[in-house]
Amino acid sequence: MSVVEESVEVQVPVTTAYNQWTQFEDFPQFMEGVERIEQRTPTLTHWVTSIGGAKREFDAEITEQIPDERVAWTTVEGEARQAGVVTFHRLDDTRTKVMLQLEHDPQGIAETVGDKLGFVRRQAKGDLKRFKQYIESRGFESGAWRGQV
């Protein structure tokens, strides 16, 4: 397993950042390579990705979700194997630090080489930067799911 840790500060309150992150079907708006996500149940999402010419489909289960604090997941079915957590840290009334920790298991030679060259880390960093631009340009979340898992 390979581990990636990245973070970004966003100029929105913690509730806004968290609420937007719970809108999984909006991820293609800021996550490069994510073509589509379907929220199948409150704790199950289906992902379709295309990264570096490799198309993947997989299901991810939300294993922990605490409003304004964290969302954790693990893949349960499909070609990709990963687990991760995103945590939200209130810096003040208008700023939040979003931290991503991702464990993934590169499949095949191309993914292993790409991982060693830092491709996944750069992708995660870019996705967080695009999330920052997305939520700050909106100023408010597109929806929210405040349930706890």
Count of individual beta strands: 7
Per CATH, the superfamily of the domain at 2-23 and 63-138 is: START domain
Q: What is the assembly state of the chains in this entry?
A: single chain
* Chain-averaged pLDDT: 92
Q: How does CATH name the architecture of the domain at 2-23 and 63-138?
A: 2-Layer Sandwich
Instruction: Tell me the radius of gyration.
Output: 15 Å
**SS summary, helix count:** 3
Distance between the termini: 25 Å
| Spatial shape | globular
CATH class of the domain at 2-23 and 63-138: Alpha Beta
In the predicted model, the low-confidence regions spanning at least 5 consecutive residues are none
Percent of residues in helical segments?
Answer: 10-25%
User: Major sheet: size, sense and barrel closure?
Assistant: 7 strands, antiparallel
> Beta fraction of the residues?
over 45%
